[in-house]
Write a structure and sequence with these properties.
The structure is a single chain. By secondary structure, the protein is mainly alpha-helical. It has one domain. It has nine helices and two strands. The chain is elongated. The chain starts with about 25 loop residues before the first helix and ends with a strand. It comes from Hermetia illucens (Black soldier fly). It is a multi-pass membrane protein.
């Protein structure tokens, strides 16, 4: 069988199944946000606003107040040490959730920019790698959700084995829940449900920025590979020769715009989490060292401390990973590529704004001011 236009045999378009969609990486995190009444869409309906306000009042005001009030009804040091860690954690969770709420309009714009990056040229290998990163982000979301909820269920299990003498966490109830088994189990159930809702809120607080950084790092890697593949082609016009280069610059600018938004959020949450972790580790550790908790209580304490590490380590790791990938090696490769193009087409002038304090052989990206935005191409 022959064809008059054999080239069409090699033309392929991405089917919906093969299309790269970075926003899929955040699907499970967005699902947890729906429990808070927060929907990442331009159309924010009244029912979503009512849900968000009601949830915020219930979890971040009423339930948080129960920990504060309980401070006035403590009888011994152990009760104080059991109350303070959660008091600090809930305080940190509230502050971080306020940051996420303020970030919502920016997330909508970020997702639009990610769609643009997804539409840029990619090899099949790059697409497969991006899909792997997206799937890994979804796995992280599920794992973090299960782990955070498991931490609270572990404390609930310890309370269930206490013969009605304690709850999962030292919070206040407007009645004596120790009076009978019905009150104890009813109070434990209500507290556990509120804690699980708080855990879902905490997942988004701690991992939303991490997932965005992971996706940005992969998009940055693709752009660097596109830079590396740019070369002077004598069969192309001057304008065509630089079309890919200029497009790479624009895509990098988009990535740095997104990173600046995420960085402003992460810098606050990481700083806050460091403070929270210090207090939580010190007070929780004293419970184990000063008293003799049961096996279930000991497991709950160590799981709780592991959760504190999980709240801060991924943010630090992926922030460092992105900055390292966007470091001096990337700029050096860009300058070498640009120098090669300029020598081939000398009539075109290029002006690069470099840091005066940087040495010639050790130039670095100006990530806080979108370094590549300073590169001007013109005749």
């Amino acid at each position: 069988m022959s064809s008059k236009n054999p080239k069409k045999l090699f033309v392929s378009k991405d089917t919906p199944a093969k299309k790269v969609e970075s926003i899929r990486a955040f699907g499970y995190i967005y699902f947890t946000l729906k429990f808070q009444g927060m929907v990442i869409t331009e159309e924010y309906r009244l029912r979503h606003k009512i849900h968000m306000v009601a949830n915020y009042i219930l979890i971040n005001v009423v339930y948080y107040s129960s920990y504060i009030i309980e401070l006035f009804f403590l009888n011994n040091l152990r009760q104080l040490l059991e109350n303070v860690p959660m008091n600090i954690c809930v305080t940190g969770c509230i502050l971080k959730f306020l940051v996420i709420l303020r970030l919502r309009p920016s997330l909508i714009e970020i997702n639009k920019k990610l769609e643009r990056l997804d539409s840029q040229p990619m090899t099949e290998k790059q697409k497969d790698k991006m899909r792997s990163v997206i799937d890994f982000c979804r796995l992280i979301s599920v794992g973090a959700t299960i782990f955070y909820m498991g931490v609270n269920l572990t404390h609930a299990l310890a309370a269930a084995n206490s013969d009605g003498s304690k709850l999962a966490f030292a919070s206040w109830f407007p009645y004596d829940w120790r009076r009978n088994a019905i009150r104890h189990w009813g109070s434990l159930f209500v507290q556990t449900m509120l804690q699980l809702q708080l855990a879902l809120e905490q997942v988004a607080n701690d991992f939303l920025g991490v997932l965005y950084l992971s996706i940005l790092s992969e998009h940055l890697q693709i752009i660097m590979e596109r830079f590396a593949n740019i070369h002077y082609d004598p069969e192309k016009t001057e304008e065509d020769s630089f079309q890919d280069f200029i497009q790479c610059l624009e895509d990098h600018r988009i990535i740095m715009d997104i990173f600046e938004i995420i960085q402003n959020t992460l810098s606050f949450t990481i700083f806050l989490q460091f403070i929270v972790s210090i207090f939580v580790f010190s007070t929780t550790g004293l419970i184990y060292l000063r008293f003799s908790p049961s096996f279930t209580e000991t497991v709950a304490v160590f799981v709780f401390m592991a959760a504190e590490i999980a709240e801060i380590y991924p943010s630090c790791y992926y922030s460092h990973k992105f900055m390292e990938k966007n470091g001096s090696d990337g700029l050096h490769a860009l300058l070498v590529k640009l120098d090669g193009l300029v020598t081939k087409i000398p009539e075109t002038s290029y002006h690069i704004h470099a840091d005066d304090a940087a040495e010639e052989d050790n130039l670095g990206w100006k990530t806080d001011t979108n370094y590549l935005g300073y590169i001007h191409v013109g005749k």
